Structure formats: C-alpha cells, structure tokens
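2024-03-11 09:14:02 INFO receiving multi-entity request
2024-03-11 09:14:02 INFO entity count = two
2024-03-11 09:14:03 INFO echoing inputs for audit
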Amino acid sequence: MSTIQMLKAAEKRLKGHARRTPMLTSPFLDDIAGRRVLVKAECLQHTGSFKYRGAWSAISALPKEVRRNGVIAYSSGNHAQGVALAASQHKIKAVIVMPSDAPKIKIDNTKALGAKVVLYDRETESREEAAEKANADGSLTLIKPFDDPEVIAGQGSTGIEIVFQAKDLKVRDAEVLVPTGGGGLASGIALALKEYAQLLRVRTCEPQDFDDYAHSLRAGRPVVNKRLSGSLCDAIITPTPGLLTFPILNRLAGPGMVVTEDECLHAMALAFHRLRIVLEPGGAAGLAAALFHGDQIDGDAVIAVATGGNVDKEVFEMALAKFGDI
Amino acid sequence: MSTIQMLKAAEKRLKGHARRTPMLTSPFLDDIAGRRVLVKAECLQHTGSFKYRGAWSAISALPKEVRRNGVIAYSSGNHAQGVALAASQHKIKAVIVMPSDAPKIKIDNTKALGAKVVLYDRETESREEAAEKANADGSLTLIKPFDDPEVIAGQGSTGIEIVFQAKDLKVRDAEVLVPTGGGGLASGIALALKEYAQLLRVRTCEPQDFDDYAHSLRAGRPVVNKRLSGSLCDAIITPTPGLLTFPILNRLAGPGMVVTEDECLHAMALAFHRLRIVLEPGGAAGLAAALFHGDQIDGDAVIAVATGGNVDKEVFEMALAKFGDI
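2024-03-11 09:21:47 INFO inference complete, emitting structure
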C-alpha cells in the first residue's frame, strides 16, 4: 500500500528530474464553465504525460543491485515512453513489450528513447508469453503501469504540486478532475490531497462505455467494462480498477464523472485556442468534465488535470475540424 | 533608456501576475539540432504571448492618478490582448484601436478581455486619427508595443527567468534565439543577460524579406524593409528597428538570423509533436533557427524563445499538413 511517507520520498527523488508543470488558466474557459478553471498541464511533462513520474519513482526506488539488471514493461503508449526515458536516465536497460500492430511512431519513439522494443503478435501470442521470453533469466524487474505502490507514489507528486499551485492562485476548496484509466494518477493525487489539502477532492473522469471507475465507485466494488477497446481515449482505457488503486479512490474520491468522445475533442480544440497546449483525447477528459458537466461539480473553482498530449495529427485535425471554430 | 534597475523593478511588479513559463526540452529536438535545445514557452503566458509582461509592466508603472484615467493602444494582435488583460486586472479602461478588417476572432477576444475596441477603416483613415478621436480629451495614456522603457523592462523579466532556468538545466554558455519584430523582447532579454549571465547572448530571428534587424545589425544603423506586409509571421513584422531597442541590440546582440516561412511551419509541427505546445509562425522563428540553422550558432546548447501561440486553426492545419508526418 502506498503511504504518504512513500509519496514524500518519491517527490524528493523526482526533484530535478520531473518537470514542475504549469497550472494554466484562461478567462474564456472560466466563462464556459461558469467558474474558475485551473488546468494542470501534465502534457508538458517529459515524454508528454504524467507517466514519467511513476516510472522514474519506481525505477529509482529499486535496490541498486536489482536496478542495474534492467527493467521491463508492457505498454503501447505513454507508460512505455515514461519507462524508456527514466531507464535511459538511470543508464539501465529497458525492454518494452509492444503489440506488433502498435502505431509505428510509438514504436519508433520508444526505441529512440533508448529502449529495446519486443514486438508480439496479438493474434497468436499473449504479452505475458512475449515478456517471459524477453526475460528468460528473470533478471529484469517489471514496472507496472499503475498497480504498484512506488508508481502511485510517483504520480502523487503531481498532487503535491497541485496543492501549492492552487494555493498560489487562491483556490482552497475545489474538485480535482483526473482522467482515469487504472487509477494510478488519481489515487496518487488523492493521497497527496488528503495529507495537504482536505478541501480539494479527486473526481475520476472516464469516457462513456469505459467508465469502470464510475460504476465501481457507485457499487463499492470493482466492476468490469463490457467494452474493452475501440475508444479515441486509448490512453485511459482499462477493463477494471486496480487492486491497489481502487481501495484508495473508494475511500477518498467523489462520484466518478463520465464524458463523451466528442466532449474530449471539443476540450482539445479549446485547449488549443485558449491554453496553447496539445492534448490527446483521454488527456482532455478532465477538462471536458470541467467545461461540460459543471452541474455535477461543487465550488467556485475546479482543477482539471490534463494528463497527456501524445496524439496523432489525424486525431488532432479531427478535433480542430469538428470544434475548432470559435 | 531602460536600465537594469528598471528591469529589476518591473520583475518585482510582475511577481504573482506574469506566469513563470516553463523551459521545455525534448531529446528528439536535440537530435535534429545536433545540440541541446531549450525552449522558453512564452506561448503559455497569459493571453498567449510575452506581450502581457510588457503591458503589465508599463501600466503598473504609471502614476496612480494617470493610470486611473485609462490606457490606449494600437494593435491587431498580441499587444492588444496583453494590454486589454493587464488593464482589466488594474480595473482601468483600455481602448484598443484596431483596423476594421482585423480577424473577427481577434476583435472578439480583445473585447472579451474587457477592452473597448475602436475600429477604423484602413482605406480612409489612419490609426492615429482614429486614436485621436477615441482620446479627444487626451486622458488615456498610450501604451506602445515596444519602444517604451517600461515595456522593454517588462519583457526583460523573460530574460531573468531564462538565466535561472538555464542554470537549473546546467546550461551556462549559449545563444538565446528571439523572434524579433520591434525588438522589445530581444532588447529586454539582452539587458537581463548582460546583468546576470554574460555567457548567454541574444540573437534576433526574423522571417525572410522582413529581416530589418539582420540588415540593421550588419549596417550598424536602422534599415527599413522593402516589403511591409504579407507574411505568415504577422506577429513579428515591423518595418524597422525601434529607436530605443536598436541601440541596445546593436551593442549586445550577435548577428541577426533569418528563417523561411516553411521553416517556421516545420518548427510548429515539431513543437506540436515533441513539446505539445501550440506556436504561431512568428513565435516559432527562434526554434526554426535553432533546428535548421545550427551552422550559424555556437555552443553545445541553444535556447529558443517561443514567443506566442495565437494562431488560426487554418494556419496550424497547414503546418501539420506540410510537416506533421514524422
């Protein structure tokens, strides 16, 4: 279980490595939302998403003699790039297991960040089998994407920054809207808020049909989505909450929020015009909830975490074509 | 003449108002440039450009009894929005004189930031006549876009941030590439570097055919461009260097750099993919110089100021269509 002590230790290890991302605002977004909107721009983190924080935290927490043998991770997206960069900065080997039909650009990026990419065929092989082959002698340590105490602790450093940035902007009492897949970031932030700012409260934000956290928080136990793939919000699609993350959010988060894909695309276009940042659809789910579901939010201000900005130009062009006229 | 004391005083007044914009990096950009590239993301400043700094500085420096009567500015672009927001935050009137054929979105934005917009017909009227009418009793103070010591001092706060952020990233000796129109930002930064970091040196960056600074620095006296309009880089198009800014840059800047429009569009696409920020063409001129004219630069690292991100979606789409495949 992640504790506040682990979180504080992770924050200390991340100093000088993770970027302190800015908290952005725009009077135009305030007008749409009907309240002040603060946007924590984690799309500006190294490798374009908050995932770098958890990856660095987990790798830096390994005992030296374990770490030097290298790490392995499964991911076709943001976690892959976070682990690849954090490993290369530690001067250790990273093996990333990716499906052979992953976008070429993501494979290329992960390689360019210094990782060895092992491809597997989704039709004929499981990623676990592929990983076992790549780690035959068992020397590589698996870095999980969310259900790991040190990963949660690393993501929690985002929460500590939010607390102080909100205070600077005179926001003391607000909901913190977090795009949520497995729940690593949301639970890390929730732990930070509990320690430092009890008047700030996490709300998970998910796309329609992939709202396992919303269902699970309502039911009080983990529920599995019926659909497992086929969303523009690929970065935050998981079948069910994590074993470590769900109990934290069940205890500390408010009711889950749900947004449509079109609302995410609309939020991306507004972030382009009003904040001059690039968001991917899943990374815009919190901002979409802030702008278009204000009736479910309490308070004069709201904080939306913009979790990532790794988006193909075609998807970005779609957002501008649909919602870019203002 | 701007002195370092004015600059320090402006920086103090801007504390808690101007955003400390992040210094971004990407290993992919380092690879293209063949050296480390640091990008000062002023597109994330309030109103989407560094202009807010100078506007706030000049307005906050006015004697109270003068300031309370309000301010006036000519601009169809970033300076208009900077003055509008800074004035509304001081709770004073701002009148912005804009050509009636300015993009509707820019007129709407300036109004939405609380300014009174006075339109004039470029065919039948000069902006000075329009301004005279709008300021018949002479009570409004003109806030110039660059040739004003307090504006230069305000823009210089960007330079002070650059010094400390470069130091954090262990960069001591580098050229600082600044997209340059009238030269307010470049001269403010040059003054800051002279005081705090003599191993950092400003280089002006301009689009082809609008390279009055490059010509003027070579000639040692102000030279006027032959072309006066018709560039995608509208934010940094001025006919000739400023009376206050040119002597500063003539003394402190290196040779001027010149980039093409296509290089600016290319830099915008790379900033989209690699930094997840939105740049306008003129705002990307420094990054374009860093990436594509490295042969004219000295040192293991280079700092590019990304000055603004107020771009129409059509121009952004053009950049992605031309250079967005990576």
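2024-03-11 09:21:48 INFO post-check: Chain B has a mean pLDDT of 95.
2024-03-11 09:21:48 INFO post-check: Residues 52-142 of chain B form a domain with the Rossmann fold fold (CATH 3.40.50.1100).
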